[in-house]
Each structure stands twice: as C-alpha cells, then as structure tokens.
C-alpha cells in the first residue's frame, strides 16, 4: 500500500518523465514509471526499441535519471527495471 507521500512522489516523477518520453518515442521506445518505493527509489522501465538500443545506458543515466533527480530531488535513486542496460 502506497502512502500519500509515495503517491505524491510518483506523480512528480511521472511528470518529470513526460518531456523525455517525447524524445524516446521518436526513436521507437517508451518509458514507464513502475513504482516509487518507501525508500524513495524510482523504478523505471524502458520499453520498445530502448530495450536493445546500444545507447540505452546513456539515455537512462543522462536523460531519465538526471531529469528525475533534477525535478524531484527527494528521489534518492533511479533503477532500471525489466531490461539490461547496454554498456
């Protein structure tokens, strides 16, 4: 069960992802915020073309993670879920 703080953080993180989603979708990918844990960890899944793209690590670290932490400084960590980051 999510607390009101988790729900609020979830909504803020989801809003932060909205701008990035536009660019990711242009390349055939997508993003989904799956959860914000009680420990303030945002769990994000890259989908579509992003799962096998050689640039997904850069997209995740420099795009997704940076945008979330900039917009929602309460978030301690951003984790990739359901795919392998390609290094």
Q: Can you tell me about this structure?
A:
The protein has helices at residues 4-26, 56-71, and strands at 29-36, 41-48, 77-80. The protein is an alpha+beta fold. α2 (56-71) links the parallel β2 (41-48) and β3. The radius of gyration is 12 Å and the shape is globular. The protein starts with a helix and ends in a 7-residue tail after the last strand.
Count of domains: 1
Strand order of the largest sheet: 1-2-3
Low-confidence stretches: none
Distance between the termini: 35 Å
What would you say the CATH architecture is?
A: 2-Layer Sandwich
As a percent range, the share of helical residues equals 40-55%
**CATH H-level superfamily:** Fe-S cluster assembly (FSCA)
Mean pLDDT: 85
- Using only C-alpha atoms, the radius of gyration works out to 12 Å
Brief overview, please?
The chain contains two helices and three strands. By secondary structure, it is α+β, with helices and mostly antiparallel strands.
Topology, please?
Layout: H1 4-26, E1 29-36, E2 41-48, H2 56-71, E3 77-80
Parallel strand pairs: 2-3
Antiparallel strand pairs: 1-2
Helix pairs in contact: 1-2
What are the defining features of this structure?
single chain; 87 residues; alpha+beta; GMP Synthetase, Chain A, domain 3; three-stranded mixed β-sheet; 2 helices; 3 strands; globular
